[in-house]
Amino acid sequence: MLEKYAILPCNGLDKCAGVISGEIAKKLCEGKKNEIICPVFYRVAETKYNKMAGEHPVLVIDGCQTRCASKLAAEKNIKISRKVTITEEAKAHNVKINNNLRLLENENALIEIILTALNKTEDKLTIIHAEPSGIYDFEYDTYQHGKFIFRVPRNPEIYYNENDCWAYIIGNHARVGVTDYVQQNLSDILYFTPPDIGGIIDQFGDVGEIESSKSVFELISPVSGKVISINETLVQKPELINENPYELGWMVEIELTDIEGDKELLIGFDKYFEIMKKKVEDLNG
Amino acid sequence: MSELKVGVLSCSGEECLGGTISRLATRQVLEELKMVTTVTLCLPLYLAGGQEERNFAKVFPTISVDGCDKLCAKRSTEKYSGKITGFIDVSKIIGKENALNTKIVRNKDLTDEHLQMVDDVASEIVKMISQMSPDSYEGKSFRGCSCGSE
């Protein structure tokens, strides 16, 4: 990290991961030019931190999937340059974090792993995981029709359109993919054609396609913005969309430009679940 | 089954030493003093819209522990969950100059002086919780469920 960063940790006291986020932020400031954005004081008095975030790239450190720091950054319209989520890193590096708030051997080892990765990374504006694991441990509701079971994640940060595509909002980014309904109807997916990185996408614009022996399906983006990343693994392993459409099968990551406006035309879990059930019934009788 | 609970909402700030001390003292109450009646509420989550945290503070008696006289935790609790049962301003215990010291202190760098501050604040939290009785506040219950039911 050659450049000075403004670091926004979640600093939570709810889980050990929050404590780790604070510790990493402090370590990154030791003897360096980096500065911490206090996630609590930022809510109360934003001028100082708005200035800091405007002048320097922002590194967001979330403890867990609740992503309080990312949400705060989104609320304040901060452009996130780099992002780390402690629980994802722990999973990626197979480190088990304890359930209390103490930093013990495992937690300290994870801190060192993350710090090393951050310090090694070239000073360019990238997210640490360009190809993140995509494992979120969503909670799913299911609908069974005959032998088919359709899963839909119940998560307030996931929005759907009626074209059976989803967007998982993470700060000012969104991961986009297709629902279980699509993958089951297509059956074995053979090809994933991603969009160009850097392309500007309108809400409900095409943002890639998938093809099975049955048909071709165009991914209709629930959100507008700029394509910043694609799930390259799917090019070689499109079957991941069949296996796990909401997590490993995410397709495109988009930097959001008007999420509040986009949300007006999107639906949440409850409504999508009902729409999907009706489609299943209509299709299969 | 309903349980006896008191929420503690700590400043959790990184702006100055007061935040660090308030956070460590709250953890000490929970982890070392093992006050079984105490539940820590995560202020960043609370502020980010965590409904469980907000509902808890609406239903159960909750005290805030603030690092400085900006009282972020107290003000937030009152904004989202109504009247607070009690509050501690750490700067009044450890001194304003100490509380507002902006030098970042990591756990491994804590001095005996810092640890004494943590002990002092933790004692105040315990004292405040111990002095609470069901009659000392209005509209909240020692027993119930954070979903809002009694």
Task: Outline the structure in words.
The complex is a heterodimer of chains A (285) and B (150). The N and C termini of chain A lie far apart (58 Å). In chain A, helix 1 (16-29) packs across helix 6 (105-120). In chain A, the strands form 4 sheets. Chain A has a 6-stranded antiparallel beta sheet. A 4-stranded parallel beta sheet of chain A has the order 2-1-3-4, sandwiched between helices. Chain A is an alpha+beta fold. Chain A has helices spanning 16-29, 41-44, 47-55, 68-75, 86-92, 105-120, 180-186, 233-236, 239-243, 259-263, 269-284; strands at 6-9, 35-36, 58-62, 80-85, 140-145, 148-153, 158-160, 165-170, 173-178, 189-193, 200-201, 206-212, 216-220, 225-230, 252-256. Chain A folds into 2 domains: 6-120; 140-284, RNA polymerase II/Efflux pump adaptor protein, barrel-sandwich hybrid domain (OB fold (Dihydrolipoamide Acetyltransferase, E2P)). Chain A is built from 11 helices and 15 strands. Chain A is globular and about 65 Å long. The model of chain A is unreliable at 122-132 (pLDDT under 50). Chain B has 150 residues and is α/β, with parallel strands linked by helices. Chain B has a single domain (6-131), classed as Rossmann fold. Helices cover 46% and strands 12% of the residues of chain B. Chain B contains 7 helices and 4 strands. Chain B has a 4-stranded parallel beta sheet with strand order 2-1-3-4, sandwiched between helices. In chain B, strand 3, helix 4 (72-81) and strand 4 (86-89) form a beta-alpha-beta unit. Mean pLDDT of chain B is 82; it is low at 144-150. The A-B interface holds A 9-15, 18, 22-23, 25-27, 29-30, 36, 38-41, 43-45, 66, 68-69, 71-72, 100-103 and B 10-15, 19, 23, 26-27, 30-31, 40-45, 47-50, 53, 70, 72-73, 75-76, 104, 106-107.
